[in-house]
Design brief:
Layout: H1 2-39, H2 46-65, H3 68-94, H4 98-125, H5 135-145, H6 149-177, H7 181-207
InterPro entries: DUF4142, Ferritin-like
Biased composition (Polar residues): 45-66
Organism: Chryseobacterium flavum
C-alpha cells in the first residue's frame, strides 16, 4: 500500500512539471511573436509615397510632351500679357486723352483675365511660365514710363497697335498648329479679344493725332 501511494505521488508530480513546461513554452512563443511584430518596420505613408511618385511622373510627362513651338508661344503670351497690364496701368496715371485712359483700363481688365487662364493651363500642364518681362519688353515699358501727357498718348497707342498686330498673328498660328489641345483652345478663345483690342487701339491712335 505504501509503495502504491509513493508511485501515485510521483506520477502527479511528473504531470504537473510537464504542464508547467508547456505553459512556459507557449508564453515564450507568444512573447517572441509579439517582439517580432513590434520590431517589424511599418511605413504608413508607403501608399501615399507611391501615389505621389505616380503624380509627379504624370506631371513631368505632360511637361516633356510640349513642343518647342508651344513652349515659345506660351512664354511669349505670358510676357506679352504682363506687359499689356503694366502699360495699361501706366495709361491710368500718364495719359491725358480719355480714349487712351479707357483703352488702358480695358487692357488691364482683359489681359489680367487672359493671364490667369494661361496660368491655369500651365499649372495643369506642369509648365513654368515666365513671371517677368524680357529685356526687349522691359525697354519698351521703361521708355513709355518716361513719357507724359500727349507724348505718352501717342507712344502708347502706337505700341498697342503694333503689338496687337503681332500678337494676333502669333495667336492665329498657335490656334491652328499647337500640339497641345488646351493651349490651342486658349489661343482661339483669346484671339477675338485681341482683335477687338486692335480695333480700339486704332481708334485711340486716330484720336490723339
Amino acid at each position: 500500500m505504501k509503495n502504491y501511494v509513493v508511485t501515485l505521488f510521483a506520477a502527479v508530480t511528473l504531470v504537473a512539471c510537464k504542464k508547467n513546461e508547456t505553459t512556459t513554452a507557449y508564453s515564450s512563443t507568444d512573447s517572441a511573436a509579439t517582439d517580432s511584430m513590434a520590431t517589424m518596420p511599418v511605413s504608413p505613408d508607403s501608399g501615399t509615397a507611391v501615389s505621389d511618385s505616380a503624380n509627379a511622373a504624370n506631371t513631368n510627362g505632360m511637361k516633356n510632351t510640349l513642343s518647342d513651338q508651344d513652349k515659345k508661344f506660351a512664354d511669349a503670351a505670358a510676357r506679352g500679357g504682363i506687359m499689356e497690364v503694366m502699360m495699361g496701368e501706366l495709361a491710368g496715371t500718364h495719359a491725358t486723352n480719355p480714349a487712351v485712359k479707357s483703352l488702358g483700363e480695358m487692357m488691364v481688365k482683359d489681359h489680367s483675365k487672359a493671364n490667369d487662364e494661361l496660368k491655369k493651363w500651365a499649372s495643369t500642364a506642369g509648365y513654368n511660365l515666365p513671371t517677368g518681362l524680357d529685356a526687349e519688353k522691359q525697354k519698351k515699358y521703361d521708355d513709355l514710363k518716361a513719357k507724359n501727357g500727349a507724348e505718352f498718348d501717342r507712344m502708347y497707342t502706337d505700341l498697342m497697335v503694333s503689338d496687337h498686330k503681332k500678337d494676333i498673328e502669333e495667336f492665329k498660328k498657335a490656334g491652328a498648329e499647337s500640339k497641345d489641345s488646351s493651349l490651342k483652345a486658349f489661343a482661339n478663345k483669346t484671339l477675338p479679344t485681341l482683335e477687338h483690342h486692335l480695333m480700339e487701339s486704332e481708334k485711340a491712335k486716330k484720336a490723339v493725332r
